[in-house]
Amino acid sequence: MLPVYRDFFLIEGGISTARTWRQQWRLAEICRELGFDTEAQDLYRAAAVDSQASGSCRIAAALYCNTQGDYATATELFQLEQKLDRDNPVAYQAYALMLKEQGRFEEAEVQFQQGLQADPTNGPTYQAYALMLKEQGRFEEAEVQFQQGLQADPTSGPTYQAYALMLKEQGRFEEARPLLEHTIRLQPYDVRYRIQWLNLVFYGLDAVDEANAVVKDLLPRDDITGSLRKHLRDTANLIDWRQSLLAGDAEAKHNVQRRSQYTTGS
Fold it and tell me: What is the pTM for the complete model shown?
């Protein structure tokens, strides 16, 4: 018997004997690993609708059903978790994000707001809500949510970063700068934040000397590879040309005109 068929018959036997939600959950994980998606989905749902199942189990099952395109079951499980635990902000946030992906923004907004009523201190919900508002072009409302999120969790580097990038996109470079700097202080080992700060001070604020110092610090690092390294090298070249231009180098003026062939990154 081929292994895949043997596994299937073993799973069929397991399904007939799985009685508790934990047994069903473990079997669902096995089915998922083996590629039996339909069986996995059925088992996840069977485990999740058990009133004794944990909230994290129910939300994970809903997310899995969402990835499989079974939005009706995902909705059923999200709503069941909200009914059983009205104070679980993760259930509201996850459901809101699923609705957002479907373009159902008004319904998603209701879920975000209910999640914040359940837990006004949940920073990730503020951030996710703000990003949706930003996507809709509702920048003033997004800014309020970012600010409230930082009040709720002033140690959230991703929230500072997302808020800064929104301000940068609006051309509010001076306001974005301290937010990115705070992100770097919170997560000093994440090189992506330093490169985003470099992009801001050089391409946005034309702070050539500060940008040059960052480039000199980052270029020797071995952990910067691929497109990030290419972007860093391109930026270093542009900084050299900009410095020469400021010094009155005629050749640099010609080189600066070629900026359009380079990407500025995020």
Answer: 0.81
